[in-house]
Amino acid sequence: xCGRYSLVCDAGHLQAYYDLANTGxxxxxxxxxxxxxxxxxIVAVNGERHLExxxxxLIPSWADDSKLGYSTINARAExxxxxxxxxxxxxxxxxxxxxxxxxxxxxxxxxxxPWRIEPDNRDEFFSFAGLWAAWxxxxxxxxxxxxxxxxxxxxxxxxxxRMPVMVPREAWALWLDPDTGMEALQPLxxxxxxxxxxxxxVGEHVNNPNHDDPACxxxx
DNA sequence: CCAGACGTTGTT
DNA sequence: GTCTGG
DNA sequence: CCAGACGTTGTT
DNA sequence: GTCTGG
Length: 220
Fold this sequence. Notes:
The chain is mostly beta strands. It contains four helices and twelve strands; from the N terminus they run βαββββαββββββααβ. Strands 3, 4, 5, 6, 9, 10 and 11 form a seven-stranded mixed sheet that branches. It binds four DNA strands through β5 and β7.
């Protein structure tokens, strides 16, 4: 599962790495991004890549209550094409959620410890496979998103059974194209290679979602 | 037919 | 919106 | 994901 | 225990 991540970078780096047409919505380095917050995601607009903000926790267009978003921060890779809450978004509204690390908690309730997983190379990003939706609330439109999660790779396995699905650079265009068919998408939903990423235990500081500072990165 | 759910992880 | 349960 | 609240009436 | 908020 993926319930917390970071984006500790400047807008220029993001723009160059993803060839973005805009980065205006990026509000600066984030060490501890939590569900229900506005998160930057990349979508295809008229052949360009745009960075836009979405409420983390997908609210389908038909929801009669935004509360559904509390339990849709992740979508299971195994069923995302079938579940009513995700199916339409999986077919037509995919996005990439850039991250430079994410957190997983190891152990059982009562004695859990946070770990950080990040790219080996400081210049790399993880590109989480995401979905988005638009939900109308009176005159307002809430745009929301979710991160697809699947089985963990060998690096993450000792920490957690699940981890975010990631889209490799060569598949970005396919993933973001609203017209891509399901049969081409399904093969992308596999665990990311363990090569190129590392994990280390961090302090409990990151547990509190109000802590959004460099101490979240400190080894325990 | 209408009513009600639509989700995840982890633990039991 | 669309599916399941009654 | 974790942290923190979880309730009422009436008064400031 | 369960829901809401971040």
